[in-house]
Structures are given as structure tokens and as C-alpha cells.
Write a structure and sequence with these properties.
The complex is a heterodimer of chains A (about 325) and B (about 250). Chain A is α/β, with parallel strands linked by helices. Chain A contains eleven helices and 14 strands. Chain B is mostly helical and about 250 residues long. The longest helix of chain B is centred in the N-terminal third of the chain and has 34 residues. Classes of the chains: A alpha/beta (about 325), B mainly alpha (about 250).
Chain lengths: ~325, ~250
């Protein structure tokens, strides 16, 4: 069985006023996360990512539908022994030192004193906070809190790690460290499920992604599969010594033409027109420098879905279901 | 150590690092000191004034800490979202509630011990006899504080911090008045009023039962059976409220 399974998960909140429809945070969300993969849960702010995570962890009860973690119903106390969780913008007991903080979570996870001492040392080293081990968390920067939060999620060496926006608040170096950490967890056979709205992170490290919009899963699969599905590729052609001005043929082929000094950038909407363009460049005495196919990105897919969902917002508010 | 113990010790550590509690205990020390000044002003009963004021100061500060820390005990965890990572651990919600309660109870016990030590030192310095009645009164003050903490915790599981404070203060006042009210309406001919007061009497904690400060100050010890029964009543009432708090907390979304 997959490590995370949700089936038609719905969460709605009463509006508090008679006659007004409930707010639907999740609307029939079904997804599965396989063992040993990195799954990126992508969506704009307010899409339902955190609500999904909270249901999985038993912090919030679903209005309807089922959710299972490691084969157990979501919220099962015993299953939580095998799960590590980092919430979004984590707030921790700031009166504790990093060492005490990790020790507290180690004891909650049922680790013995010896194991805690070893794990705390290892994890503080892993997240680069060895120097700050006796410092109170109130003196930590946002990035340091994020890193100690990650260490907290890993203190009991869980099988499944759930991270809510783990890159938030980190500088580029910190983000790379977290990405590397997530990849190393997968290498050790762990399953990582993380939510984010930063597309770059997802494209770089995820085996599979799910895109959630307004409480619905609108796309799910491997990144390369998703972006290949129905997206035409554009092609960038760079050439030199070509008089582009007044060339109606080239302008008719291209979606965009940029001349900078001797160099010229021509963007074609699809690979179909490449041969015709290259022939024209040669006829005009130009010198071809490069032909680069521009692959459609996850960002393109994401914005396409976001645009579509915006136009569907009215049925959603009345509790309409994804088809 | 079980999850309840881990949560309790952490709650205790949190309060140890919270300077407000130190200030309140210091304030209690000042109040006890003030009792000496007032005793000097009174013509007779110096000993009674010192003992009475001292016990009242201990009670007041203990109840203030119980209410104001008790109402934020769980709410603060939710508002600051620290509860997310704790509830993601293999512990039940009931363990969390009980752990927080026991942690605060331990804090209150230590605070009370410090205040009582200052009080006893004051009594000794001013040659006030230290009798059994003083210890009985202190024991029942502690039981009352345990009940008030449970009341505050119970309300905080389903209402805001402000509302919890209002409810707890209200129940504290009612808890000290129900016995008197019942006596007052005993001869009333109005059935509904008698029923209402009876309902309040049985539903609200009878905190007056835990108040023997007046007689303790003049050295009159209560019967041991009374102290035991009153303590049992308070502990059972707190247990009843904690069960309610756990049940409500079980249903909450975070």
C-alpha cells in the first residue's frame, strides 16, 4: 500500500451565518504517495495544502472521505510514531535551547536518553546548528528555526516525512541544504511529502507532484509527464549578421524577434518552423549560432491550471465537485 | 517517562523561565510583609492579623496564577501553533491536556511552597504560634487552586482566552457564594428560585468548603475528616472538569 492515500477528502467550514454556504477548503481530494518517493504538493496560497496536511496528521477532521498514512487511518496515534512533521513557519517553545527542544521531541517520540543524545548531536550537525545547540530558540533567526524544525521532524528517524513549505524563510544556501537533505532522505528509503508554492523546488527534486487548486487536485504525476502532456514547445534561435528589419517572412514565423547589436534572437512558437527559419537565415547570409528548444515548464502548467480554476470559482463556492 | 510526564515537565520548565511568576511570588512576599505592618497598627490580635493576611495573600496569588496561566495553557499552544508538532507525535490529546495540567499543578505547588516558606518565616520571626490549622488551611488553598486551574483549563478548551478568564472568575466568585445563597433562599417560597440556587449549588464548585483561613488564623484546627473530605471533593471536582476538558479537546480542529 502507498504511504499516503486520500480518497475523496472533503473539508468544509460552516460560515457561521444561516443561509450562507459553507467554505469548502477541500473538495473531493484524492491522491496517493508511493513509498520512497519525493512528492511535491503544489498550490497557491489558500489552495488547501495545509488543510490536507492537517487532516493527514489528525489535527483537523475531514468532513467526508478517507485518509490513510502508512496503512493506518489518518490521526492514528501509533502511526504517528513513524511520521515526522514540520509545519509552515514553525513556532516552537522559544524558551528552550536547541538541545532541549530536540530532546523534548525525542522523549515525546519515546526515544531513550542515549539515543536522544546521539540523535541531537547528529541532527544539529546535519542542519548546521552545532554551534547554536545551547542557544535559546528565541535568539534564532527564521532560517535557523526552519532548520531546527527540520531536525525536530527527523529526531526519531521516521519513515514518512511531511513538510509544510520547508523552504520558506530560507536563503539560497539554506534552500539548497534543505533540498539536499530531502534528496538524502529519499536515498535512505524515506518517503517525503512536502507542500510548497515554489515551483523551482518541485521541478528540481520531486519524483512526482500534485497540483491543488481551490481544494481540488487538478493534476498529478511525474513532472516531465505533466509538462509534456499538452504543452507545445517553443524554440529560441540565435543568429548573427542578419538584417531582420523588414523581413516579413521571419516576422510571420516568429512570436518574438529581438535584435541586439549584431545578434538576433528569434522565438518560434513550435519546432515546426525551424527548418524554414534556418533556410531563410542562410539565404540572407546570416550565421546561425544556436537553436534551443524551450521546454514548457511546470510554471506554465501551474499558471494554466490557476487561470482555469479562477474561471471555475463560482461552482466551487457552492460546493461543486471536481469532474 | 510517559508522554504526560514529558509534557508536564516541559510545562513546568516553561513556567520556571517565565519571569511573571517570579514577580507574583515576590508580590506575595510583599503582601505577607504588609501583614506585619498592619498587625503593628492594630490594637489587639497581632498574631491573627499576620496569619490571616498571610494566608489571604498566598490564596490570592495562587488563584491569580491558576486563572491566568490556566486559561492560556492550551490556548497559547493553539494560537502560537506549537501544538501542531506536538499533536503530530504519538500522544493522545487527553495526554496533552493532562500533561499541561499537571505541569501547571507542579508549578503552583512550587510557588505555594515558596510563599508558605516566607509566610512561616514571618510567623516565626513575629512569634506567632505555628499550629496545625495553618497547614490545614494551606492544604485546602492548594486544593482550591487545583480546582480553579481545572476550571480555567476546561473553559480554555472551547473558548477564547478573554472569555475563559471571565467564565473562570465568574465561577470562582459563584463558587464562594453558593453555600451562602442556598442558606439565604432556604426559607424562600419561590420554587423556581430555590431550584435555580440548588442547581448552582450542585453544579458549581463549592469553594467555600475549601476556605478555612479564618479559623486557621486563630488557631482552631478543623476536624481531620473534614479536611480529608473537602480535599477529596476538590480533587474529584477537578477530575470531573479535566475529563470534560479532554472530551472537548478531543473534538477540536486546530
Amino acid at each position: 500500500m502507498d504511504d499516503i492515500v486520500t480518497d475523496n477528502l472533503t473539508k468544509s467550514y460552516a460560515s457561521g451565518w444561516p443561509g450562507r454556504p459553507p467554505f469548502v477548503a477541500l473538495d473531493g481530494l484524492s491522491l496517493s504517495v508511493r513509498r520512497g518517493e519525493i512528492f511535491g504538493f503544489l498550490g497557491p496560497n489558500g489552495a488547501g495544502k495545509t488543510t490536507t496536511l492537517k487532516i493527514l496528521l489528525g489535527l483537523v477532521r475531514a468532513t467526508s472521505g478517507q485518509a490513510y498514512l502508512l496503512g493506518q487511518p489518518a490521526g492514528d496515534v501509533a502511526a504517528r510514531r513513524r511520521i515526522g512533521f514540520l509545519p509552515e513557519s514553525p513556532y516552537f517553545y522559544d524558551y528552550l535551547t536547541a538541545e532541549e527542544f530536540l530532546g523534548f521531541y525525542g522523549r515525546l517520540a519515546g526515544l531513550d536518553r542515549g539515543a536522544i543524545t546521539q540523535r541531537v548531536t547528529d541532527l544539529l550537525g546535519l542542519v548546521g546548528l552545532t554551534e547554536a545547540r545551547t542557544r535559546q530558540l528565541r535568539k534564532f533567526s527564521k532560517g535557523m528555526l526552519q532548520r531546527v524544525g527540520l531536525a525536530q521532524a527527523l529526531i526519531h528517524d521516521p519513515e514518512l516525512i511531511i513538510l509544510d513549505e520547508p523552504m520558506t524563510g530560507l536563503d539560497p544556501v539554506g534552500r539548497k541544504q534543505v533540498r539536499d537533505l530531502i534528496l538524502s532522505l529519499r536515498d535512505r528509503g524515506k518517503t517525503v511529502f512536502f507542500s510548497t508554492h515554489i515551483l523551482h523546488d518541485v521541478e528540481m527534486i520531486c519524483d512526482r507532484v500534485g497540483i491543488v487548486m481551490k481544494g481540488r487536485l487538478v493534476a498529478s504525476g511525474r513532472v516531465d509527464e505533466l509538462v509534456r502532456q499538452d504543452h507545445t514547445q517553443s524554440v529560441e534561435v540565435v543568429c548573427q549578421q542578419l538584417k531582420i528589419e523588414g523581413n516579413a517572412f521571419i516576422h510571420s514565423l516568429a512570436t518574438r524577434v529581438l535584435q541586439q547589436g549584431q545578434q538576433c534572437l528569434i522565438v518560434l512558437p513550435s519546432p515546426d518552423a525551424v527548418d524554414a527559419l534556418v533556410g531563410e537565415i542562410r539565404r540572407q547570409g546570416g550565421r546561425l549560432l544556436s537553436v534551443t528548444p524551450h521546454k514548457a515548464s511546470l510554471e506554465d502548467l501551474f499558471f494554466q491550471e490557476a487561470t482555469q480554476q479562477t474561471s471555475l470559482s463560482l461552482p466551487h463556492m457552492t460546493g461543486g465537485r471536481a469532474s | 517517562m510517559g508522554a504526560i510526564g514529558v509534557i508536564a515537565l516541559n510545562a513546568f520548565r516553561e513556567s520556571l523561565r517565565d519571569k511573571i511568576l517570579y514577580n507574583l511570588v515576590l508580590f506575595a512576599g510583599l503582601l505577607i510583609g504588609l501583614s506585619v505592618l498592619l498587625a503593628d497598627l492594630s490594637i489587639t490580635e497581632h498574631h491573627k492579623v499576620i496569619a490571616d493576611m498571610g494566608l489571604a495573600a498566598i490564596n490570592l496569588i495562587g488563584v491569580i496564577i491558576a486563572i491566568f496561566v490556566g486559561i492560556s495553557l492550551v490556548n497559547k499552544e493553539i494560537e502560537r501553533r506549537t501544538i501542531y508538532t506536538i499533536m503530530a507525535r504519538p500522544i493522545s490529546r487527553a495526554s496533552f491536556v493532562l500533561g499541561k495540567y499537571l505541569g501547571l499543578a507542579l508549578t503552583l505547588f512550587v510557588n505555594l511552597a515558596i510563599m508558605v516558606a516566607v509566610f512561616l518565616l514571618t510567623l516565626w520571626l513575629y512569634h506567632v504560634p505555628i499550629q496545625l490549622s495553618i497547614f490545614q488551611a494551606v492544604l485546602l488553598i492548594f486544593v482550591e487552586i487545583l480546582v480553579v486551574t481545572a476550571v480555567a483549563l476546561f473553559f480554555s478548551t472551547f473558548s477564547s482566552t478573554t472569555l475563559s478568564a471571565i467564565f473562570t472568575l465568574g465561577l470562582y466568585v459563584i463558587g464562594h457564594l453558593t453555600a451562602d445563597l442556598r442558606t439565604l433562599v432556604a426559607n424562600s417560597e419561590s420554587g423556581p428560585i430555590k431550584s435555580l440556587v440548588d442547581l448552582l449549588y450542585y453544579l458549581c464548585p463549592n469553594l467555600d468548603m475549601l476556605n478555612i483561613k479564618g479559623q486557621a488564623a486563630v488557631g482552631i484546627a478543623a476536624a481531620p475528616e473534614y479536611v480529608i473530605l473537602a480535599s477529596l471533593y476538590g480533587v474529584m471536582y477537578a477530575g470531573f472538569l479535566l475529563t470534560g476538558a479532554c472530551l472537548v479537546f478531543q473534538q477540536r480542529d486546530f
